[in-house]
Design brief:
4-stranded mixed β-sheet, 2 domains, Aspartate Aminotransferase, domain 2, binds pyridoxal-5'-phosphate
Length: 414
C-alpha cells in the first residue's frame, strides 16, 4: 500500500506534482487530492475534511462509501462482474424494467445502456438520424446554453463555442434556438417535416441551473408530435431524483405532464459507478436503432447495473425524493437571504444555483474550499450546488452560515 501512504511526503502538494507529470491537462490543476469519503464528507491527502456540496457533479446521490451501494457492487463483482452483450444478466434486465417503471414510459418502451451521459446522448443522436424515412429529416434542434457532453455527436448539440470550435467540423445538421423561446421554436417548425429531433435539458445545468419556462416543454411536445420529430430530454444531470422527482420533467412546473420520446440518464444513475442509459418511450422510439446499429462493450455491465439498482433502492427505501424536495425548497429560501450580494437562488430539489450581483463565484468557491465546502462556480457569477440526497438540514445550514459570514461587500478580484 506504499502508493497510498497518506503521511509524510504523500501530501496534497506531492500528489499534485505527480498529477501534472502524468495526467493530461484537460481539467487544469486539481483543487485538492481526495483520498476517502463517508456520507456527505470527503477528506484530502492532508487529512482535511470537506462537506461535498457538489457530489462529483450531481453524481454521488448516496454520498460516499454508502454501505448498501458498496455491498451491492461487491456482491455483483464477486458473482459475475462483466459479460459481453452476446449475453444478458438478470441485473441488467431488472434495471431496464426499473427505469421504464420509474420514468413512467408506456408499454413497448425499451432501454439502451451506455457508460456516460455523452454516450447516452450519442445514442439519442443516432436515433434521431434513424428518424428519417422520408430522407428529408436532417435537422436536429438544440437550445442555446445547452450542454450534452464532449464526444463529437454530443458536442455538436452543445452550444458553447469554446467547447465546439477547436473540433470543427462537427456532425452536421444541428441548429440552436434561443433558450425557452416558444415563438422561435414555432418558427423552427415552419417546415417541421425536416426536423428529426428536438433535444432539451428540462433544467440546463452547466450554464447555471436554468429550468425551461412553464409551458415550453408542452409546446415542444405538441410541435414535435405534430411533425413526427423526436422529443429528446437530456436528464443526465436533472434526472434520477436530483430535483425531488425521478425526472425533472415529472415536476409539473417544468414538464407539465408531457411524455417525451427519449430520455437520457447518467450522473446519479449509478450513484458513482459509471453508467448511462437511454429510455426510448413506446414502440416507435424503441425500434429506431435496429440490430447491429449501435453497441458498446461495457453497456449494461452487471456491476454498473447493480450499482444503479442499489441506488434506486436506497432512494425509495429512505424516502429520499421527498427529502430532496423538502430540504431543497427550505434551503433555497435560506440561501437567498444569506448574503446581500446574492441576487437569486434558482433550481429544484438539490440542483441549486446561487447567483451573485458580481462575478465573484470563483473567489467565493475558493474561500468555501478553504473553509471546508466543495461547491462549483459554473459561471463567473453563479455557484452550483448538487450535493448528495442524504444531506441533512444541519449540514446544509453550515454552508448558509459560511455565506452569511462573508464580508458584506463582495467585489470581483482582478
Ligand atoms: C454531464 C452532462 C452530460 C455529459 O455526461 P458525461 O457523463 O460527462 O459524458 C450530458 N448532458 C448533461 C445535461 C450533463 O449535465
Amino acid at each position: 500500500m506504499t502508493e497510498l501512504d497518506l503521511t509524510g511526503t504523500d501530501s496534497v502538494v506531492h500528489w499534485t506534482q505527480r498529477y501534472s507529470g502524468a495526467v493530461m491537462d484537460t481539467f487544469g490543476p486539481p483543487q485538492r487530492v481526495l483520498v476517502r469519503g463517508e456520507g456527505c464528507y470527503v477528506w484530502d491527502a492532508d487529512g482535511r475534511r470537506y462537506l461535498d456540496l457538489l457530489g462529483g457533479i450531481a453524481v454521488n446521490a448516496l454520498g460516499h462509501a454508502h454501505p448498501t451501494l458498496t455491498a451491492a457492487v461487491s456482491a455483483q463483482l464477486g458473482t459475475i462482474g462483466h459479460i459481453s452483450n452476446f449475453f444478458a444478466s438478470p441485473t441488467q434486465i431488472a434495471l431496464a424494467e426499473r427505469l421504464i417503471g420509474l420514468t413512467g414510459a408506456p408499454d413497448g418502451s425499451r432501454v439502451f445502456f451506455a457508460n456516460s451521459g455523452a454516450e447516452a446522448n450519442e445514442a439519442a443522436f443516432k436515433m434521431a438520424r434513424r428518424n428519417n424515412d422520408s430522407g428529408r429529416r436532417t435537422r436536429i434542434l438544440a437550445l442555446e446554453g445547452s450542454f450534452h457532453g464532449r464526444t463529437l455527436g454530443a458536442l455538436a448539440m452543445t452550444s458553447k463555442a469554446a467547447y465546439r470550435e477547436p473540433f470543427e467540423p462537427l456532425p452536421a445538421g444541428v441548429e440552436f434556438l434561443p433558450f425557452g423561446d416558444t415563438a422561435a421554436l414555432e418558427a423552427a417548425f415552419a417546415d417541421g417535416e425536416t426536423v428529426a429531433a428536438l433535444v432539451v435539458e428540462p433544467i440546463q445545468g452547466e450554464v447555471g441551473v436554468r429550468a425551461m419556462p412553464p409551458g415550453y416543454l408542452a409546446r415542444a411536445r405538441g410541435l414535435t408530435a405534430e411533425h413526427g420529430a423526436l422529443l429528446v430530454l437530456d436528464e443526465v444531470q436533472s434526472g434520477m431524483g436530483r430535483t425531488g422527482a425521478w425526472l425533472a420533467s415529472h415536476r409539473p412546473e417544468i414538464g407539465g405532464g408531457i411524455t417525451p420520446d427519449v430520455v437520457t440518464l447518467a450522473k446519479a444513475l449509478g450513484g458513482g459507478i459509471p453508467i448511462g442509459a437511454v429510455v426510448a418511450y413506446g414502440e416507435r422510439a424503441a425500434t429506431l436503432l435496429g440490430r447491429g446499429q449501435h453497441g458498446t462493450t461495457f453497456g449494461g455491465n452487471p456491476v454498473a447495473a447493480a450499482a444503479a439498482l442499489a441506488t434506486i433502492g436506497v432512494i425509495e427505501r429512505d424516502g429520499l425524493l421527498a427529502h430532496v424536495d423538502r430540504l431543497g425548497a427550505a434551503w433555497r429560501e435560506e440561501l437567498a437571504a444569506a448574503h446581500p450580494s446574492i441576487t437569486e437562488v434558482r433550481g429544484a430539489g438539490l440542483l441549486i444555483a446561487i447567483e451573485f450581483a458580481a462575478p465573484v463565484a470563483a473567489q467565493v468557491a475558493a474561500q468555501a474550499l478553504s473553509a471546508g465546502f466543495i461547491v462549483n462556480p459554473c459561471t463567473p457569477s453563479t455557484l452550483r450546488l448538487a450535493p448528495p440526497y442524504l444531506l441533512t438540514t444541519e449540514q446544509a445550514a453550515t454552508f448558509t452560515a459560511f455565506l452569511a459570514a462573508l464580508p458584506h461587500t463582495l467585489e470581483a478580484s482582478a
